[in-house]
């Protein structure tokens, strides 16, 4: 049994070698390594699994390569609606947010729900308001925008058909 | 979608998942949300799970809780439990993947899509993979 361990994912779907340049593959690998190191740093110094998973998710939320936080996909109404959840195995305590539009790091909002409310899940404006009240970093919805996701939205709306990549959450 | 599962030096487990959902999803739709039990779950002594994929299928199957319950109640390995749960997702028409850590620190990447961005780190070092 290892002293500690962290495992991450950055999404799944139709990911083929044909569709990815060496530069893009290198960028994804570097981003994954950054997330791993953020979580490992917590565990290496004796921190909790809970702190580690949050620490690992944050850099992926901040990286436009991934569909979470900055760089997330767009809704049909050309906005970004983000969802996050977190669970602590010690007491099976859990927190989640759905449809937030202004909290920069949704995983922090989920953890705030778990630790600073009597509840498990907030959604929509109420979730954003709760996060703001907890002092979390708030941003305009346009913060999450990237041209790549705008192009994906326009393609889906034009063709009225999603690719497998578009369908993945 | 992104996610992480971990076990710390005290044997505690945790899981977290964040997503932007599906491109062009209807405003207000929460079908891709990583609901507790569907895409995120952690129970000390059992396992921790984070999932990615066709969210509404994962909700219908209750993937993360199903995996932990099969480990807890049926004595399956985390790989066996994950393959069974993802098999149910596939039967319904969905695909995706999970990352899992067991109470003994073993881990699994299980996915029925063509690829999943993934990585693992422990005191022996870090490894990443895509395909």
Notes on the protein architecture:
The complex is a heterodimer of chains A (169) and B (131). Chain A is an alpha+beta fold and 169 residues long. Chain A is built from 6 helices and 4 strands. Chain A has a 3-stranded mixed β-sheet with strand order 2-3-4. In chain A, a hairpin with a 4-residue loop joins strand 2 and strand 3. Chain A starts with a strand and ends with a helix. Helix content of chain B is 26%, strand content 37%. Chain B has a 4-stranded antiparallel β-sheet. A two-stranded antiparallel sheet of chain B has the order 1-2. Chain B has a two-stranded antiparallel ribbon with strand order 7-8. Chains A and B meet through strand 1, helix 1, helix 2, strand 2 and strand 3 of A and strand 1, strand 2, strand 3, strand 4 and strand 5 of B.
Features of this protein?
heterodimer; A: about 170 residues; alpha+beta; three-stranded mixed β-sheet; 6 helices; globular; B: about 130 residues; four-stranded antiparallel β-sheet; two-stranded antiparallel ribbon; 8 strands; about 35% strand
Helical content of chain A (DSSP H or I, runs of 4+): 40-55%
* N- to C-terminal distance of chain A: 33 Å
Biggest β-sheet of chain B: count, sense, barrel?
4 strands, antiparallel
| Coarse morphology of chain A | globular
* Extended strand count of chain A: 4
**Oligomerization:** heterodimer
Mean pLDDT of chain B: 96
Cα separation of the termini of chain B: 16 Å
């Amino acid at each position: 049994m290892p002293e500690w361990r962290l495992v991450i994912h950055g999404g799944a779907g139709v990911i083929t070698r044909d569709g990815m340049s060496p530069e893009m593959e290198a960028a994804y690998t570097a981003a994954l390594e950054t997330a791993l190191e953020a979580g490992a740093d917590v565990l290496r110094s004796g921190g909790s699994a809970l702190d580690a998973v949050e620490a690992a998710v944050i850099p992926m939320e901040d990286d436009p390569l991934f569909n979470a936080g900055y760089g997330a996909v767009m809704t049909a109404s050309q906005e970004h609606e983000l969802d996050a959840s977190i669970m602590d195995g010690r007491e099976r305590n859990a927190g989640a947010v759905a449809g937030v539009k202004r909290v920069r790091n949704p995983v922090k909002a989920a953890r705030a729900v778990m630790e600073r409310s009597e509840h498990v899940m907030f959604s929509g404006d109420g979730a954003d308001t709760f996060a703001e009240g907890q002092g979390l970093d708030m941003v305009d919805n346009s913060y999450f925008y990237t041209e790549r996701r705008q192009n994906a939205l326009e393609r889906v709306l034009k063709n009225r058909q999603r690719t497998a990549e578009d369908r993945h959450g | 979608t992104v996610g992480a599962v971990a076990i710390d030096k005290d044997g505690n487990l945790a899981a977290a998942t964040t997503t932007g959902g599906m491109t062009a999803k209807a405003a207000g739709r929460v079908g891709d949300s990583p609901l507790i039990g569907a895409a995120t779950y952690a129970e000390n002594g059992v396992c921790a799970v984070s999932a990615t994929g066709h969210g509404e299928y994962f909700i219908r199957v209750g993937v993360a809780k199903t995996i932990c319950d099969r480990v807890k109640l049926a004595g399956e390995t985390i790989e066996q439990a994950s393959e069974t749960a993802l098999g149910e997702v596939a039967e319904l028409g969905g695909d995706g993947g999970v990352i899992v850590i067991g109470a003994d620190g073993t881990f699994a990447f299980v996915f029925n899509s063509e690829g999943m961005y993934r990585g693992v780190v422990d005191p022996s070092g870090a490894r990443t993979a895509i395909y």
